[in-house]
Amino acid sequence: MTLQPDQRKAYALGLGAVLAWSTVASAFKLSLQYLSPMQLLLYASAASLLSLLSILAWQRRLPELAAAFRRHWKASLLFGAVNPFAYYLVLFQAYSLLPAQEAQAINYTWALTMTLLAVPLLKQKLRPQDAAAALICYIGVLVIGTRGQLLALHFSNQFGVMLALASTLLWAGYWIFNTRDTREPVLGLTLNFACSLPLSLAWCAWHGQLNLPAWQGLAGAAYVGALEMGFTFALWLSAMKLTRSTASIANLIFLSPLLSLLLIHLIVGEAILPSTLLGLALILGGLAAQKIRLRRSLTHGLANEPH
Q: Which SUPFAM superfamilies has this protein been placed in (predicted)?
């Protein structure tokens, strides 16, 4: 079957976004060799804000920002405090404690976490297949966290695993409440970063970490901010707008974990453990068994997911 031009372009944009996100776990780990988690948050947030402002400038929409902030300043402050501030602070701390392969695999449970949070927050019913998927996914987390030593329950870094799981709660909660956000997506994300940047700056100042880091750290933060948090989000939104099948584009995201593991091995130099592969297979298998059907607005949340 011949694809329509718009559908081909949607696949190209979606695949480009997925390929870019496949690099971020490696970028996180390399950047954290030169920066603390809170420094990475600060400098990456600044780079992301510049990236998003550049997109709006190219679209000639910068004048809309002030009006959007006046209308939605409360939402912008609240969402910005969650994403990027709290979410990435917790996520980067998890990456600083865990091997990249473990942190990024656990992060994939965010979609399941969103389904579970929808029960108390949106009053949705938990289906039997959701419960089964949760069991499969979290057995996968245990396999990864204990490096295959399930019976001993000896975690490679218990606090790091807890932080990685906490990041999925923040991310899933953010996208659940984001379904009620009436702001235009790129404008809304730009306002989130603009509101969160002073929080990141104050947090670094409070902990005495405003010193200028090595250029490698700044380069890594710029890459993370522009790619992970900024420009690629716009690519993904464009793919979603062009496609006739949101599910077909969303399914591209499942290419990311294996590509990410390959890059972690080649770039970061981590030996990929059999327990990571088994745990990731369980997590992805659980998500596939669940057959999650996200609404279009939630599907946008896949944008920053593969860490």
A: Multidrug resistance efflux transporter EmrE (SSF103481)
Of 169, 156, 37, 33, the C-alpha closest to 110 is: 169
Task: Please answer whether residues 285 and 3 qualify as being in contact, where contact means their C-beta atoms are separated by less than 8 angstroms.
Answer: no
Q: What is the spatial distance between Cα 294 and Cα 246, in angstroms, rounded to a whole number?
A: 9
Domain spans in the chain, listed from the N-terminal domain onward: 7-299
Q: Which two tokens stand for residue 261?
A: 């593991």
Q: Which structure tokens are listed for 202?
A: 């104050």
* pLDDT value for 295: 45
Task: Centre a 10 Å sphere on the Cβ of residue 78 and count the other Cβ atoms it contains.
Answer: 15
Beta strands per DSSP E along 74-134: none
Structure tokens at 258: 């294996």
CA pair distance 146, 149, nearest whole angstrom = 5
CB neighbours of 211 closer than 8 A, spacing ≥ 6? none
212-225 pLDDT, tens digit each: 899 999 999 999 99
